[in-house]
Amino acid sequence: MPSNTKAILANSLTALIKTRTLDQIKIKDITDHCGFNRQTFYYHFHDIYDLLEWIVRQELEIILTSKSEFKNWHEVIKHIFTKMIKNKSLYRNIYASMNITWVRTLLEDFSQPLVSIVLKSYAKEVEISSENFSFLVEYYSLIIMSMTLQWLADGMPEDRIKDIEKYLVIMDGSIEWALKKFSTKR
Amino acid sequence: MRKKIQRYGLKKVYDYLDADPDNNMMKVVDWTAKFATNKQLEGQVNTFREALSDPNNNWYQLVRSLWTDIDDDVRKTIFNNFVLNANFDFIPIRDELSEKYDCNIPWAILMDPTSACNLKCTGCWAAEYGNKLNMSFDTLDSIIEQGKELGIRMFIYSGGEPLMRKKDIIALCNKHDDCAFLAFTNGTLIDEEFAQDMLRVKNFVPAISVEGFESGTDFRRGKGTFARIEEAMRILKKNRLPFGVSCCYTSQNVDQISSEEYFDWMVDMGAKFCWFFTYMPIGKDAPTDLLVSAEQREQMYRAVRAFRETKPLFTMDFWNDGEYVGGCIAGGRNYMHINANGDIEPCAFIHYSDSNIYEDTLLEAFRKPLFQAYRKSQPFNENHLRPCPLLDNPGELTKIVRETGVASTDLEQAVDVEELSAKCEDVAKNWAVTAERIWSEGHYEQNKETLSEYHTRSK
Fold this sequence. Notes:
- The complex is a heterodimer of chains A (186) and B (459).
- Chain A is an all-alpha fold.
- Chain A has a domain at 70-181.
- Chain A is built from nine helices and no strands.
- The termini of chain A are far apart.
- In chain B, the strands form two sheets. In chain B, strands 7-6-5-4-3-2-1-8-9 form a nine-stranded mixed β-sheet. A two-stranded antiparallel sheet of chain B has the order 10-11.
- In chain B, strand 8 (335-338) and strand 9 form a beta hairpin.
- In chain B, helix 19 packs across helix 20.
- Chain B starts with a helix and ends with a helix.
- The mean pLDDT of chain B is 89.
- The chains are: A mainly alpha (186), B alpha/beta (459).
- Chain A binds chain B through residues 37-47, and chain B through 137-138, 141, 167-168, 170-172, 174-175, 177.
């Protein structure tokens, strides 16, 4: 029942946020929408941001665990962006009203594991210290994060998704070189 | 600004301690010593230093056990919410507001979510309440919100059995994640699921009521209760959750409760603190034969002090430890009570009120005649071993109630204050003799400074 209750609350917030901004939504509006009482909301979440974070993490988790269905990581990234556009009002609101540290942490939480998987696939034949490997993960995550933040700041334009490909092409081309550069054996 | 730096400093000290408690404990004490600017503090730091430099010392063991026995995140949250928010940040706000509004601003709010209880204990007023009263989630939430406006971050539940409202209690902990919550509970409703909830919210600490060993506990609380309490403690200990014990000593169980065996049992079960209460004949038909005699109260006084030197357990005996807190702490001086009917009372044991949470704000209640009368009359006795306006100074409560004309809020049946106070006359008289003897053994000198306030007021 707990996870189901959470999902019901999440659906209500997702619905409400389509017609008004985050600061116009009170917890009571969410619980009225789904017929729960306030204590049910607070039993599961600290506040509205806590619920937002849960929604985002749920979405990302679904995408990251189903990654095998994608041909390559470019597709994963593009898929995430497309998913975000589907829930545009939610992400626009998150970007507008949340503090940037929180947004960054969230982005980091999805970009780092993704980048790590990509680098590992390239690094099969390269010997590299874990320290250097972590550095490269951080480096490439920063690019993805900045790219995403910029896109959010510009209002999540749909036509920009094809430009993302350009970032990824450069990253693809440089990964092999970077891994070699930082490998134990030169 | 200075405040901010100090707060930041405290956080850093915690992190430092957290990294290597064994080696860094002493360094922290030494470091604190350098900041102790007045003589009184210096003395305290020295006592502390002595205790923490010896791994065999009971205080060293208690502090150390917070690292070995308690979940890391829970310990950190308690430090933040209790040490920093509820104490360090609160004190200056309280000083400012109590001057501004000329009233007491309590450190903690004690409230009863419900008058319902799953046990029926002899002499407990909750057991006698026929009509089951509840404060809704929204009412409790509003009390907390109002308290937070006044800087308060410490909230305590009693009842009734507060855990009859488990989900609401967890929801409130979750919503107010900057506050520390404690509950006086009979413990029988603590199960694995609740322990998982406690680990999730991290800011809830139960104080489980025990009346001594199986015979003593089951005598008052019903057969099988002791076994259920031990089970609750095992669940808490297994999940590395902090908890304490709450003991009401009576003429029947005082020998058990003051025994070394009993203190050892509490420590073994994993309790970190114990609150002691003496039995009070609250309610119209409450028996008086459970009241402790002066000899028994002294026995408790001696036991608590003796074990403070040897057992890794933080103890507080509210009727005998007045010397550490300047006497009576009720009437909003450090705490007050809101019953399940919403009546705002000076103390859990004093069921008289001139305000109700459905009609008055907290601040309004603090400024009304009853709380103001407490403020003017505290301490009720210059001997801090006689702090209570009912049990130790029965005339004091009568005077306040008569002067302010407040109503009885006993949920069972209205109790006339003179009738109630009369029940305590004899024990108060007997205790006065004993208390004067103990007090003359040196407490007066030690408390001279805090007492000057009392004398100024008496003039």
